[in-house]
Amino acid sequence: MTLVDHIPTLRGSLNRRLEPGIWPRGAHLRTDNELEIARVETTQLAARFATPAYVLDEDDIRARCRAYRAALPDVEIAYAGKSLMCRGVLRIIAEEGLSLDVCSAGELAVARSIGFPAERILLHGNVKTAEDLKAALGYGVGRVVIDSLDEIHQLGALTTTAQPVLIRVTPGVDGSTHHAITTGVDGQKFGFSLADGAAERAVARVLAEPGLRLVGLHCHIGSQITRVAAFEEAARRMVGLLALIRDLHGVVLRQLDVGGGHGIPYLPGETEFDLTGFANRLRCAVNYESGRRRFPVPALTIEPGRSIVGPAGVTLYRVAVVKRGATTFVAVDGGMSDNPRPALYGARYTVRMVGRPSSAPLVPVTVVGRHCEAGDVLAEVDLPADIAAGDLLAVAATGAYHYSLSSNYNAVGRPPLVAVRDGVARLLVRRETEDDLLARDQG
Ligand SMILES: Cc1ncc(COP(=O)(O)O)c(C=O)c1O
Ligand SMILES: N[C@@H](CCCC[NH3+])C(=O)O
To answer: Within this chain, do residues 146 and 271 fall inside the same structural domain, yes or no?
Structure first.
């Protein structure tokens, strides 16, 4: 802490500029401190849909899809549906020409309900239940990504024609991210280890299974990673394995899926993912390694989720209570049920009081939720000293892994998901009601 941090009056009052790179592209802060997203006032959104509410800048999502396609024109971009899955978002993804990664029969059902093209769908997961596998085969998904020896037999026993599959490999690359979302190293539950030969043994088993057709390899080293070199290293190792498989089995696998995991900034000053650098270095690494091993350059797939939808989302909360003391607690009408990420990963956020002007100095506060846990903390940030019940808070970069991680803790209904575009708000998913909560309860 510096001296300035201890003296509220020196901390300044509300910054009139939105932190660059953190808020949706269509976000604009007016001089009266009204936050507009895609020319829709967030005070109007809060009035119409109530709070908490997840707001999505549709054009931001579309722009991110297009940026990926422009940077990687010959690479298949498969949106990781787990990051934010609903029909409205999948329609955007389908319209933008992306493929889709699903990891359960439930996610597949959403995709299926809008007729997402089956050949552009990949099924993932370390556990795929019989229902998941049957649903995938029933819809005719393009590829299933095999994650265990058990699954080889389980899937093989269900197929009637040879199902195209990839094998998920753990390449032994650490993306330097939170341990709960680190998946490229040995000692975690996903994939077959490259280092101990498990991946090579899985290849032999799949090749011997008549119900499966091995078309390529997959890896996913983790999430919220900005170090491009980690993806480059993983790709290099995977091409090495493709060449080894050719040498050992005489089989040339044409597809290489290097997963997703591209990080986004949540706080000012955090590194943005270098998409152009990633595209160049991925292409160079794969071309170089393929050339060196005289292996035909494989067709590439990537699976970004967070970096497609994360920055497009903003959560709106209403301040319910302010408790002033040694710590000032600003308690809002949502919390860990709509955002468990601070509790799960120590995630931090950029938060603003919006909707009315304030010239009060900024003071440190702890933004907490309404749930029955002391750990229900959303953020530790600076907000205007005159913050009061009824004020509106906007939390940035909540498009990915918020709606999809939300729960009904304390029988609180999940917030609505609202898309905004060209001055118009469109409800994608309505708020969960008490009737919804009671609907499954058999009494
Ligand atoms: C197999 C797979 N692909 C893609 C992703 C998408 O990750 P992210 O949202 O970090 O891009 C995940 C989640 O980490 C995943 O498990
Ligand atoms: N849920 C995690 C990301 C998980 C990535 C999925 N494999 C997060 O919110 O950061």
So the answer is: yes
**Structural domain containing residue 347:** 3-57+310-439
79 annotated among ligand-binding-site residues? no
Q: Which residues line ligand 2 (CB under 6 A)?
A: 82, 181, 223-224, 341, 345, 401, 405
Residue 290, number of CB atoms within 10 A of its CB: 19
How many Å apart are CA 377 and CA 335, to the nearest integer? 7
Residues with a CB atom less than 6 Å from ligand 1: 80, 83, 101, 124, 220, 223, 259-262, 303-307, 400
Q: Determine whether the annotation assigns residue 91 to a binding site.
A: no
Q: Which atom of ligand 1 is nearest to the CA of 145?
A: 1
Same domain, 248 and 344: no
Domain check: are 189 and 292 in the same one? yes
ipTM value, please give it.
0.98
Active site residue 86: no
Residues 291 and 331 in one domain: no
User: Do residues 367 and 234 share a domain?
Assistant: no
Question: What is 275-288 written as a DSSP string?
Answer: HHHHHHHHHHHHHH
The band of 176, judged by pLDDT with boundaries at 50, 70 and 90, is: confident
Give per-residue pLDDT as tens, 318-370. 999 999 999 999 999 999 999 999 999 999 999 999 999 999 999 999 999 99
> Which of 325, 340, 442 is CA-nearest to residue 398?
340
Query: Which ligand 1 atom minimizes the distance to the CA of 181?
Result: 14
Largest Cα–Cα separation, the chain: 73
How many angstroms does the Cα of residue 401 sit away from the middle of ligand 2? 6
Distance CA 370, CA 389 (A): 13
Total domains, the chain: 2
Q: Are residues 88 and 185 in the same domain?
A: yes
Rounded to an integer, what distance in angstroms lies between the CA atom of residue 90 and that of residue 255?
Answer: 24
* Identity at 208, one-letter amino acid code: A
pTM: 0.96
Task: For ligand 1, pick from 64, 68, 83 the residue to mutate: most ligand atoms within 8 Å of CB.
Answer: 83
Using the mean position of ligand 2's atoms as its centre, give its distance from the Cα of residue 424 in Å.
30
Q: Are residue 192 and residue 264 in the same domain, yes or no?
A: yes
- Tell whether 413 is in a known binding site: no
299 and 317 share one domain: no
pLDDT in tens, 65-76: 999 999 999 999
Give the tens place of pLDDT for each residue, 289-298.
999 999 999 9
Whichever domain contains 11, its CATH number is 2.40.37.10
